[in-house]
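Students often ask why inverse folding is considered easier than folding. One informal answer: many sequences map to the same fold, so there is more than one right answer. In these notes we will look at a single instance of the problem. The structure comes first.
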C-alpha cells in the first residue's frame, strides 16, 4: 500500500453491488426472444449468490442484481455465478444470453413490453420513448451511508464519468446499421427528460427539494424515474453509477466496478478533508459524455479533469483514461484492487472496447447473426460454470 492510500475505515464502508441487464437471444437466428417469463424464475432458483434475477422493461431482457460485496474479488465471483445461472436457465428454454448495450439488428417495433407494473405505466406515460428503449446498461452501487456525504461525492465524480463510458461502450449497432457511435445506448437514452448528469447540489436537502418537486408536481411518478448517469439510489443508501453500457465480458464488468468504487473512495476522502468539488458546467459534462459515446476509445475525448489546467481540452482517449486511473489509484491501492483493475484497463486500451471488437468482427466478414454468437461467447467467458451451458 502506498503512502497515499486512504484510511482503511473508508475502504470498509464502501461496499459495492452491480446490476447487469442482459439480452435473451434465439440460439440459431440471434434474434431477441421474449423468454424472460420462463428464464427469470428458473434463473432465480439457480442463482447461488443470494442476489436477484428480475424482469426488465422488455420480455427479451433479464436483469441481475448482485448481493452486497466487500471486495472486488467477491464481486467478480458473484457476477460470474449470476451470468452462469442466467445462461443455464436461458439454454434450458432454448435461448442464449448476450451482454451488449444494444442488439446488433433487432427491430424495436417487434419487441414486447413486460406486462407488469411499473413497465406498463412507463409505456403509457413515455409512449414512443419507452417503445424504443431497447437498451442494456450496467449500474454500479457504492454504499455511502451518510446522505450529506453521498450527495457531495456525486458532486466530485461528475467530471470523471465520460472515460467510464468510453471504456464500457458496447453498442455500436442499431437495427442492423453501424451507427458511428461506440455507445448508441447513451444517445437513445439521452432523449428522456430525466437523463443526463445533474448540476452540483449544495446539500442533501437541495437534492431532496428537487426530487420532491418533480414527484409532487407529477412530473415523475417515483424517485426511480431520475435516470441520471449518477444518482442517489431510490432504494438503498448508495450512490448509483448508471453511465456505463452493460459490459460484454466479466473482466470488463469487474474493471468498471473497481474503477467506480475507487472513484467513490477518493471522492469521499476529498469530501471528508473539506476539498471543494469541481464546478464544471453541465454543458461540458454532457459534451464529454457525448464525445465518449461517439468515439469510445478511438479518438480524442474532452478532458474535464480538475487537475488539467483549465480542465477543458481534447486529449487522446488513452490519456483521459490514464488520468482517471491516476486519479483513483489511491483508492485502488487502499482496497488492494490496483492490479486487478489496471491490467484490464491496459488490455482494453490495447485491444479495444466491446464496440471496437464488434466492429472488427463485422469488418472481417462476420454477419450480424454471427456477431451475436460472438457476443454470447464473450458474455460467457470467465463465468463459473461448465462451458457446455453456454453452447448449443
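Output (designed amino acids):
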Amino acid at each position: 500500500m502506498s503512502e497515499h492510500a486512504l484510511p482503511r475505515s473508508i475502504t470498509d464502508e464502501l461496499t459495492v453491488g452491480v446490476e447487469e441487464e442482459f439480452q435473451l437471444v434465439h440460439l440459431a437466428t440471434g434474434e431477441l426472444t421474449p423468454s424472460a417469463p420462463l428464464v427469470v424464475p428458473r434463473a432465480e432458483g439457480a442463482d447461488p449468490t443470494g442476489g436477484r434475477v428480475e424482469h426488465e422493461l422488455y420480455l427479451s431482457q433479464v436483469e441481475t442484481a448482485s448481493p452486497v460485496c466487500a471486495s472486488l474479488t467477491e464481486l467478480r465471483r458473484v457476477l460470474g455465478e449470476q451470468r452462469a445461472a442466467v445462461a443455464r436457465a436461458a439454454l434450458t428454454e432454448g435461448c442464449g444470453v448476450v451482454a451488449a448495450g444494444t442488439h446488433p439488428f433487432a427491430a424495436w417495433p417487434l419487441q414486447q413490453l413486460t406486462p407488469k407494473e411499473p413497465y406498463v405505466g412507463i409505456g403509457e406515460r413515455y409512449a414512443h420513448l419507452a417503445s424504443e428503449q431497447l437498451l442494456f446498461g450496467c449500474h454500479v452501487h457504492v454504499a455511502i451511508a451518510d446522505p450529506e456525504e453521498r450527495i457531495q461525492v456525486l458532486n466530485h465524480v461528475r467530471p470523471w464519468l465520460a472515460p467510464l463510458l468510453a471504456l464500457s461502450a458496447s453498442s455500436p449497432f442499431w437495427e442492423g446499421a453501424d451507427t458511428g457511435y461506440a455507445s448508441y445506448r447513451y444517445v437513445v437514452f439521452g432523449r428522456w427528460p430525466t437523463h443526463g448528469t445533474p448540476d452540483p447540489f449544495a446539500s442533501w436537502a437541495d437534492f431532496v427539494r428537487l426530487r420532491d418537486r418533480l414527484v409532487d408536481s407529477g412530473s415523475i411518478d417515483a424517485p426511480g424515474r431520475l435516470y441520471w448517469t449518477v444518482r442517489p439510489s431510490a432504494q438503498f443508501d448508495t450512490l448509483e453509477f448508471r453511465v456505463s453500457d452493460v459490459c460484454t465480458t466479466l473482466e470488463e464488468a469487474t474493471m468498471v466496478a473497481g474503477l467506480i468504487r475507487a472513484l467513490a473512495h477518493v471522492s469521499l476522502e476529498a469530501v471528508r478533508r473539506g476539498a471543494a468539488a469541481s464546478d464544471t458546467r453541465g454543458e461540458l459534462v454532457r459534451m464529454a459524455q457525448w464525445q465518449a459515446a461517439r468515439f469510445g476509445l478511438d479518438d480524442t475525448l474532452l478532458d474535464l479533469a480538475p487537475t488539467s489546467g483549465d480542465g477543458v481540452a481534447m486529449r487522446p482517449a488513452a490519456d483521459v483514461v490514464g488520468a482517471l486511473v491516476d486519479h483513483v489509484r489511491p483508492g485502488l491501492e487502499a482496497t488492494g484492487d490496483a492490479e486487478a483493475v489496471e491490467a484490464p484497463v491496459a488490455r482494453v486500451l490495447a485491444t479495444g472496447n466491446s464496440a471496437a471488437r464488434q466492429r472488427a468482427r463485422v469488418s472481417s466478414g462476420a454477419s450480424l447473426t454471427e456477431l451475436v454468437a460472438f457476443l454470447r461467447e464473450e458474455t460467457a467467458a470467465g463465468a463459473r460454470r461448465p462451458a457446455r451451458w453456454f453452447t448449443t
